[in-house]
Each structure stands twice: as C-alpha cells, then as structure tokens.
Design goal:
- The protein has helices spanning about 15-25, 45-50, 125-145, 180-190, 230-235, and strands spanning about 1-5, 30-35, 55, 65-70, 75-80, 100-105, 110-115, 150-155, 195, 200, 210, 220-225, 225-230, 240-245, 260-265.
- The chain is an alpha+beta fold.
- The strands form three sheets. The chain has a seven-stranded mixed sheet.
- β6 and β7 form a beta hairpin.
- α3 (about 125-145) packs parallel to α4.
Amino acid sequence: MRIATWNINSVTARLPKLLEWLESAKPDVVCLQELKCATDAFPYEEVRALGYETEAHGTGRWNGVAILSRVGFADVVRDLPGQPGYLADDALLPSLEPRAIAATCGPVRVWSVYVPNGREVDHAHYRYKLDWLETLRQDVLADAAGERPFAVLGDYNVAPTDEDVFDTAAFEGQTHVTPLERAALANLREAGLADVVPRALKYDRPYTYWDYRQLAFPKNRGMRIDLVYGNAPFTAAVTDSYVDREARKGKGTSDHAPVVVDLAL
C-alpha cells in the first residue's frame, strides 16, 4: 500500500501537476493540504477519472484539507473533535478553520492535517498553533494505542530538529523551530506516534518545502515540515519512504514536495 501527503498550495492552480503525479506515483491514499478551495469546488471528477474518490473539507480561503483514496472510505470525520478556533484581530468570535480530516482507507486510518503556521512567536496565531497541536495529541490517543495501522500526515509547519532546516541561523527567533513547537511534536511521540523520516532522493537531507524566492529549491535551501507520524502497527509495516523532489521541479508547482510511504500490509 502506498500512502502520501502533499501540501498542494491550491488544488485548482496545481491540478495538472496533481493529475500527472497521481498517474506516475500511483498512490493508494493521498492526504492533501492547503486546498484553497471550497468543499464543493474540489475537482472531484478529474481525480475520479484516475480511480480516486475524494473527501474534502474547505472554505475557499487559505486552508482546506482532503483525502484521496482508491481503496474506499469509512468513518470520515471533519475537524478534530476538540479543535480550537482562531480569533482573528478583526473578529468577534473564533472561527473553526478546515485544517483536519480523517478516514479509514482499507486497512489504515489516516488524518490529513494542516497545522496553523504560527506567523510570529509573539502573535496570537502562535498560541493558536500550540493549542491546536495539543488538541491533536489528545484526539489521537485512542487511535495511536490501537492495533490498526494509524497515521497523522500533513504539513505540520514545524521542523522537528535543527537538521531539518538548511541553516539554523536563518530561522533564529522565528516560528517552525522554537522549543515549544518541537515539544509539541515530542508530545505526539510520547502519545504513541513515531516520525517516519523519509529518505532524500537527492542531497543528504529530505527537505519537503522550499520557498519560491531566491532560488531556494535549486540551492536546496529547504525545511522538512511535511511529516508522517504513525503508530507502532503503521511504522512496523513501512518498507520505504521518500520525498518526491521531482514533483517540485518546473513551473507551476507547489512549494512543497510529496512525502511517500510504502507499507507491507
């Protein structure tokens, strides 16, 4: 079984790239993030033509998540059960953003998650990010301890270690690398999930994100922030995992590359 996660950075803008990649990589399940489209605007028919059914969750703004499957769907859940909302500066009430969707696909249960960015360390969005990650930990405890293969895949917006960024000095004082964010990932591991670290198809570090600016991708000035956290039955079944840098090449691509995990189930 082949499972992948990809921050697509607008499924509408990247649809040709997505369809091309689905045909070449042939994943059984794909977790997508940053759809930037409403649920009813997802290109269902285009991916159905390649054999995939879709469960999507989006509002048409900067968020949105989806799961594509060619092995069926069961027990679909939108939003974390205890998911916090974000209170924007100009809002009266917190808004519940579409950042999580779960489903059972064949023998595996998966969450596709798009963790809040955090913006700046002293910003309310940073506290929201930490609260969101703690809620994720609480909400996956039962599945993490179960006997069924289970994984939380997506754009975590956190680099787990200093080795997961091209230059630690470039991120000093910024989000994505702070001790509190990394502690949140450590809490997920303590809850029964392990980081499935992919191999790099080029260079020595498996980065998954490169900024569009300043030739970051050709210079490999990247970060590993797209992660696969699986429970023991999931990680025991892993036979290979890699970052598909080829999908990041060329014009009109996402600024993230897919992370692919192969399982013997």
